[in-house]
Automatic annotation (TrEMBL), chain A:
Organism: Mola mola (Ocean sunfish)
Sequence ranges of Low complexity compositional bias: 583-599, 1199-1213
Zinc among keywords: yes
UniProtKB keywords: Coiled coil, GTPase activation, Metal-binding, Zinc, Zinc-finger
GO MF: GTPase activator activity; zinc ion binding
Protein name: Rho GTPase-activating protein 29
GO cellular-component term (any): cytosol
TrEMBL record, chain B:
Record's protein name: small monomeric GTPase
Keywords, ordered alphabetically: Cell membrane, Endosome, GTP-binding, Hydrolase, Lipoprotein, Membrane, Methylation, Nucleotide-binding, Palmitate, Prenylation
Organism of provenance: Mola mola
PANTHER family: RAS, DI-RAS, AND RHEB FAMILY MEMBERS OF SMALL GTPASE SUPERFAMILY
Database matches in Gene3D superfamilies: P-loop containing nucleotide triphosphate hydrolases
A GO biological process held by the record: signal transduction
Broad EC category: hydrolase
Length: 1314, 192
């Protein structure tokens, strides 16, 4: 309102106006509203309204009290007026005299006002104003009005004008400064500095413009200020800013995503590279004398390091160098954006509200005003019209008018308020906007800063990474250039020793390229190994022992090279790859070695050549990266396999859980559906196949796969369980099926202390799986991960499922009988006071021992394979019992377990339960005895070395001392003649069949017949007494009753032993014990020679000894002699002895027999027919001998025509072995005859034999004889008929004895035995 | 006098003999001997009437499995024992019950599931709940015993007798002719 009144009118209205405008602008600026400023700026010719608005805006200036500001503004106006007056005074074309007065007056006014203003507003007390004022005063005072004339008015006055302008300008500045707020004064203007500067600049611009064209110095706005400014101007500035922020955020997000992916890939890439480089380096280091090896090694090293660095960098980038800060920033930005948006929206809403209310108020005001106007006009009208009207109407009208006026005023006020409110809001909004914009700008700034930092970092890091590479490569290339081809090869050759012609020969050829030499060397080793291994390829079971041999051979060779582990690796590896040799679990290492063979490491460049050598190219499948920078990459798959050796194969099975056995395979993806070797189901998908042995299985089954790689084609599924034992035994060199060996060895290795081993069952499913594995993988099965109970179950299962148990059906009854014997013996001994307190192990009682020996001899009837396997198994069980403290599995427990497994009767279903129940205890007892008396039962020295688990080769089972002890022990109990008679029966019971008996009868002339008949009679007698008789004739006769006649058996065994010493001395080089025995025998023979009777008595005395379970002793003796100097000999003897082990012949008795001069005559009588010499039935007679009388001297003596007889006999032997064998068997039968003569002759022969023995020791011709005869007999005949075995063995000893007369005698004797 | 024929079944080493001997003699045998087959008779009082309990202690080791059919045929009540410190024995027992049902051709055979060796709580491998669950599945009582500490041994045999009584009631499916026949066969087997 006051605006209109205050509009100055002046001569130069424009200038004044302008000045006022400026002042007004100043005033408006004090309000701090940019909008108003904008408005002010934009309007050159402000209409009153706008000015009014400006003024009204002025009222709502924040931060400074409105009244004060108004006052200030008023004062400023006042000052401006005065100043203008002064200026006008100079402009006025008045008389100079007046001018001076006027000027002076106006100047005084001005100063006064200035003082007042400055006094009121101390802040305006600035130097500038005062200075400017001073200038004006001076100038004005300096006017020499006398000099003033119209000419120089302009000039003089121009200066004054200028000074006045300056003053105005200064004043205005100061005021505006003040209004904007100093740095010192508190101000609510947010960012004063920029604002002020901004405002100042804005201010200065128009002021300059108005003050007559001092060129506006355009102060360049800073970028931020420009940004802010622009945005401020912009209505939707905030929105734009926010939009930008959003765009920035998205951009960063994309950037981050890319970076993340890139880094991840970088890391992975680098890791793989590093791994490859590492492995390549390791392998490269192993090879000596390779060209460029050190360069490559250093390359690998560097590469590895570089990759490590890469990884580190990438990780750093991932974390604090790039991604994280940027991410954080972005999040911040987003948050800010959101906040700002909200804020802005709030402000805007408020603004809108204020605007709305303002408008409303405005409308109201207008309305009221109109009302007032109306009232007023009506009042006036009525006043005019009716001057003398009643006052009431007038008053009423006036009152109305007043009311209307009041209302109008009210409305006006309200409107004002609203306006003020709206203004405030607007200002708020503007503030908010600017704040927001600032915030945004700053945020963006920060974000940019971050982005800049991380980007720079990244690039710097990249640069740092790569910076080292060029130099490195350059260096390597330089050094590589220096290498002379063939250098390394030459060096290698130089370092070879000279003593390996083979290798040298092979290596000589190609010297030019290291690569080919590399190949040659490997070729050399391959061929060398081929030579050694050629014959083994066909014989898989023999692989295991021979491989180790070979490998040791070749390795020693190569070691002699004193160079490279690589060569060694090559050789063994070549073995592996060529022969497929490494089949054992022990040779897993070999398989890995073969890898090295197959993927040679540092041969430069020719990777293609390498690949074909690898058996399983599947592993080197797709990614054959022959990048020059990373040479070993194609081989890395294989190398990695080998190097880690525990890692799964690359490719599809990297993550598969693999059992130990599975790791030995070179796995690749299964191509065609096949049968899974682990679970026996079809595998189509997710299958794995081994490249070497083509074992297929599910990926899942890899975890439990138990079959190792044999490096050659895996056999198809065998039938293992339920297969005839003989078949299974055939596949094994020592007749023990591999499954038995493997299981027992595994249990022995780690399970001997497990409580309840063999008793506790394993998991059925696992056991089944293991069975399957065995069927699929044969002896390649890896057992180390199996539970021992599972393994024990498999073993038991195998034995149970044999169609015929280990102890064949036909031996069942006899064995049960033996068991019953044992039982009674044990019972007997338990009753006796002197029963061994220490338990059965320490010193088994006599009776028990007897039975045990019986068992032993009985078992010898088993087929070789069965016997061996049984022995092996029992040995193992014996070892288990050694740990009985821990595992609680004593011999009796094991007996219970294994009884029905090993000893089963042939039975139909109907019989099962009853007989089983009844016999179980005996089966158990039998097995218990076997286990407990293992050493006794399975005379380990009786058997060939290859079978033995214990080295029983050199020394006999008993030391001489032991022998004496036994002798003394047994000498106490006497056997009566009756018993001796019974021996015959026992003997007969052992002999196979009666028809052979008949044959014997046929053969034997005269006296023998009598003997035979006597024997037969005895047979009959015995038959009544016990079925033992029959029972003891196991082989060819059917199963008989199970009654036991221990004594009979005893006899039989004893008689068997008698024969033994006859043969033994001749074949043996005398061992010290033997010699000792020989001496003893010689002594006794001397004794016997002295008197005929003495030996007889001695023999008689001896007989009791022999009667006793002397079979043990004699068996000892027999074993004594059977030290296998020559394996074949032993075999011979064994087979022979086995048949005759029930002959209880002590060396002493033999000697005595031999010494009897009458023996010779007996011998003579016995050998009428040469053809029957071998098959002499006198054998049985010899057994009888010790007991009773001496046999006729010539009983077993071959006539002097022995030399002629020898060739005679020889052809007989060679041509008609079979007949001989039958006759041999008949002679076996003949011992049943209780012919005294026979026994005497036997006695006689013994000493002769022993004499011969001594002679034989000197006679070296014996030995050659042995092998020749041995060649006649097959050492290991499958299920042997005992007769057949006899003949070859018989031939041998007999042959020898023909050398001399005594030899002949002995031979005859032998023949009789046969 | 009534005769109850009980068969103690279970895999090897779970404590069948120990349980039986503990019940019959009141002592705990420490020895670790695999049984082939043992037979015990003990007079007991059931509902104040004297009865004879004939207990057949069987072999647990697998190779004697062929004998099982026979004595399942002859047995009236069955005690299925497993060792709760041996998970495997718990697994092995399930097919045994199937065998019983198969041989008997009858589902509701008096059976008690027993988890033995409860004195070895620290080595427990089979939880009570597992045993309980299996017993519920079978519809039979469940006990955890210890032959060593005499826990629940007498209760066990009392319970099996009760079960046999319950099963032998006339309204049950178990026809007495069959029962007497089995009894007869049983006697023949044992004394023949």
């Amino acid at each position: 309102a006051y605006h209109s009144t205050r509009l100055p009118s002046c001569d130069h209205p424009t200038s004044k106006l302008r000045l006022t405008q400026e002042l007004l602008i100043v005033g408006s600026l004090s309000a701090g509203s940019t909008k108003t400023w904008d408005k002010g700026r934009s309007s050159k010719n402000p209409n009153p309204l706008s000015s009014m608005r400006l003024m009204s805006h002025l009222a709502g200036a924040p931060g400074v009290e409105p009244e004060y500001v108004m006052q200030l503004v008023n004062d400023v106006r006042w000052f401006a007026d005065v100043l203008l007056n002064l200026k006008e005074a100079f402009r006025c074309k008045e008389s100079l005299e007046d001018l001076q007065a006027v000027v002076q007056e106006r100047l005084a006014d001005l100063l006064h006002v200035l003082k007042a203003v400055i006094g009121k507003h101390q802040t305006l007390n600035s130097v500038d104003i005062l200075g400017a004022a001073g200038t004006v005063i001076a100038k004005v005072k300096g006017i020499d009005f006398k000099e003033v004339n119209p000419e120089n008015t302009k000039a003089i006055f121009g200066e004054i004008h200028i000074s006045i302008d300056t003053l105005a300008f200064t004043f205005g500045n100061v005021v505006s400064d003040f209004l904007m707020g100093d740095v010192d004064s508190s101000s609510g203007f947010g960012t004063p500095q920029t604002r002020r500067s901004r405002v100042r600049r804005c201010l200065s611009f128009p002021i300059r413009l108005s003050f007559a064209g001092s060129p506006g110095l355009e102060v360049p706005l800073s970028r931020e200020e420009e940004v802010d400014l622009t945005l401020l101007k912009n209505d939707s500035g905030v929105e734009s800013a926010l939009l930008y922020a959003k765009a920035w955020s998205k951009y960063i997000k994309d950037l981050l995503a890319w970076m993340e992916k890139r880094l991840a890939m970088d890391i992975e890439y680098a890791r793989n590279y590093a791994k490859m480089a590492e492995s390549a380096k390791t392998l490269a280091c192993q090879q000596d004398y390779m060209p460029f090896s050190d360069i490559y090694i250093s390359t690998f090293k560097n590469d590895a390091e570089y990759r490590q660095l890469l990884i580190q960098t990438a990780m750093a980038l991932q974390t604090n160098k790039f991604m994280q800060p940027l991410l954080a920033r972005k999040n911040e930005l987003d948050k800010l954006r959101k906040d700002i948006k909200e804020q802005w929206q709030r402000q805007q809403k408020k603004m809108q509200e204020a605007d709305a209310s303002l408008r409303k108020a405005q409308a109201l005001k207008a309305q009221r005003r109109e009302e007032y106007q109306k009232a007023h006009s009506s009042t006036n009208r009525s006043q005019e019209e009716q001057s003398n009207l009643a006052n009431k109407q007038m008053e009423k009208k006036r009152r109305l008018e007043e009311e209307a006026l009041q209302k109008a005023e009210e409305a006006q006020d309200q409107y004002q308020i609203c306006v003020a409110d709206a203004d405030m809001r607007k200002m708020d909004l503007a503030n908010a906007k600017s704040t927001i914009l600032t915030q945004i700008r700053e945020m963006v700034f920060q974000c940019d800063l971050t982005l800049k930092a991380v980007t720079v970092n990244w690039f710097q890091m990249q640069q740092a990474q790569i910076v080292s590479l060029p130099a490195h490569y350059l260096a390597h290339s330089e050094s590589a250039k220096l290498y002379e081809p063939g250098e390394c090869y030459a060096e290698f050759v130089r370092n070879l020793p000279n003593n390996l012609p083979r290798d040298n020969m092979h290596c000589s050829s190609d010297n030019t390229s290291t690569h080919s030499s590399h190949g040659n060397l490997s070729q050399a080793s391959i061929t060398s190994c081929d030579v050694l291994s050629g014959d083994d390829v066909d014989n898989p079971p023999h692989r295991p022992p021979k491989i180790s041999e070979q490998r040791s051979n070749s390795s020693t060779d190569i070691q002699a090279l004193k160079s490279q582990t690589s060569l060694r690796a090559w050789a063994s590896g070549s073995q592996g790859s060529h022969g497929g040799m490494c089949s054992d679990s022990e040779s897993v290492g070999g398989s890995s070695e073969s890898r090295s063979m197959d993927s040679p490491i540092a041969s430069p460049g020719d990777f293609k050549r390498r690949l074909p050598r690898t058996p399983s190219t599947g592993t080197m499948s797709s990614a054959d990266d022959l990048d020059e920078r990373e040479p070993p990459s194609p081989s890395d798959n294989g190398l990695a396999e080998m190097v880690t050796e525990t890692a799964s194969s690359p490719g599809p099975f990297r993550n598969a859980q693999m059992s130990k056995a599975a790791q030995t395979h070179k796995l690749r993806k299964l191509r065609a559906p096949s049968k899974c070797r682990e679970c026996d189901s079809l595998v189509v998908f997710h299958g794995a196949e081994c490249g070497e042995c083509s074992l297929a299985c599910h990926k899942k089954c890899l975890e439990t796969l138990a079959i190792q790689c044999g490096h050659k084609k895996l056999q198809g599924r065998l039938h293992l369980f339920g297969i005839d034992f003989a078949q299974a035994a055939k596949n094994s060199p020592d007749s023990i099926p591999f499954i038995v060996k493997k299981c027992t060895s595994e249990i022995e290795s780690r399970a001997l202390n497990i409580k309840g081993i063999y008793r506790v069952n394993g998991a059925k499913s696992r056991v089944e799986k293991l069975c399957q594995a065995f069927e699929n993988g044969k002896d390649l099965v890896e057992l180390s991960e199996m539970s021992p109970h599972d393994i024990s179950n498999v073993l038991k299962l195998y034995l149970r499922q044999l169609p015929e148990p280990l102890i064949l059906y036909r031996y069942y009854n006899d064995l049960i009988g033996l068991a019953k014997e044992c039982q009674s013996a044990i019972v007997e001994e338990a009753d006796k006071p002197q029963s061994t307190p220490a338990g059965e192990k320490a010193a088994p009682g006599v009776h028990l021992n007897r039975v045990i020996f019986k068992i032993r001899d009985f078992l010898q009837q088993l087929p070789t394979a069965n016997y061996r396997t049984l022995r092996f198994l029992i040995a193992h069980l014996n070892r288990v019992t050694e740990q009985a403290e821990e595992n609680k599995m004593t011999a009796s427990n094991l007996g219970i377990i294994f009884g029905p497994t090993l000893i089963k009767p042939r039975q139909t279903d109907a019989e099962v339960s009853l007989s089983s129940l009844v016999d179980y205890p005996y089966q158990a007892l039998m097995v218990e005895l076997l286990v407990r008396h293992f050493k006794t039962v399975f005379d380990t020295s009786l058997l060939s070395s290859s079978d033995l688990t214990t080295p029983g080769q050199a020394s006999p089972r008993l030391t001489p001392l032991e022998k004496i002890q036994r002798l003394s022990r047994y000498s106490t109990s006497l056997m009566d003649i009756k018993e001796s008679a019974k021996v015959y029966k026992r003997y007969s019971s052992v002999i196979p069949s009666s028809h052979i008996l008949d044959e014997v009868q046929e053969v034997q002339p005269g006296t023998d017949r009598a003997e035979v008949s006597a024997l037969e009679g005895l047979n009959v007698i015995q038959r009544s007494s016990g079925g033992e008789f029959q029972k003891a004739a196991p082989v060819l006769e059917g199963p008989s009753s199970t009654s036991v006649a221990p004594k009979v058996q005893l006899r039989t065994q004893r008689t068997r032993h008698v024969s033994r010493p006859v043969s033994m001395p001749l074949e043996r080089l005398p061992t010290p014990p033997q010699t000792e025995r020989n001496n003893r025998y010689a002594a006794s023979s001397v004794d016997t020679n002295s008197s005929v009777l003495d030996p007889v008595s001695e023999t008689i005395q001896e007989t009791p000894e022999t009667e006793k379970a002397r079979q043990s002793m004699s068996s000892r003796v027999s074993t004594y002699y059977i030290t296998p100097f020559i394996d074949t000999q032993t075999l011979q003897r064994r087979t022979w002895d086995r048949k005759y082990k029930h002959y209880d012949v002590t060396p002493r008795t033999a000697m005595i027999v031999a010494n009897l001069p009458s023996a010779s005559s007996g011998i003579h009588t016995v050998f009428p027919n040469n053809s029957y010499t071998v098959s002499s039935p006198k054998l049985p007679l010899t057994l009888r001998q010790p007991r009773t009388l001496q046999p006729p001297p010539g009983t077993f003596y071959k006539p002097p025509s022995s030399t002629s007889s020898r060739p005679r006999t020889l052809p007989n032997w060679t041509t008609s072995v079979t007949t001989i064998t039958t006759t041999n068997s008949t002679s076996l039968l003949s011992p049943t005859k209780p012919a005294e003569i026979v026994t005497q002759s036997l006695v006689i022969t013994r000493p002769q034999q022993t004499r011969l023995q001594t002679q034989d020791s000197t006679d070296s011709a014996i030995d050659p004889g042995v092998p020749t005869s041995s060649t006649i007999s097959p050492p290991e005949s499958p299920p042997p008929s005992s007769p057949e075995d006899l003949s070859p063995s018989e031939i041998k000893p007999v042959y020898q004895r023909l050398r001399s007369r005594q030899l002949q005698e002995l031979e005859q004797r032998e023949a009789h035995f046969v | 006098m009534r005769e109850y024929k009980v068969v103690v079944l279970g895999s090897g080493g779970v404590g069948k003999s120990a349980l039986t001997v503990q019940f019959v003699t009141g002592t705990f045998i420490e020895k670790y001997d695999p049984t082939i087959e043992d037979f015990y008779r003990k007079e007991i009082e059931v509902d104040s009437s004297p009865s004879v309990l004939e207990i057949l202690d069987t072999a647990g080791t697998e190779q004697f499995a062929s004998m099982r059919d026979l004595y399942i045929k002859n047995g009236q009540g069955f005690i299925l024992v497993y060792s709760l410190v041996n998970q495997q024995s718990f697994q092995d027992i399930k097919p045994m019950r199937d065998q019983i049902i198969r041989v008997k051709r009858y589902e509701k055979v008096p059976v008690i599931l027993v988890g033995n060796k409860v004195d070895l709580e620290s080595e427990r491998e089979v939880s009570s709940s597992e045993g309980q669950a299996l017993a519920e599945e079978w519809g039979c009582p469940f006990m955890e015993t210890s032959a060593k500490s005499k826990t629940m041994v007498d209760e066990l045999f009392a319970e099996i007798v009760r079960q046999m009584d319950y099963a032998a009631q006339p309204d049950k499916d178990d026809p007495s002719p069959v029962k007497t026949l089995t009894q007869h066969v049983w006697n023949c087997q044992l004394h023949g």
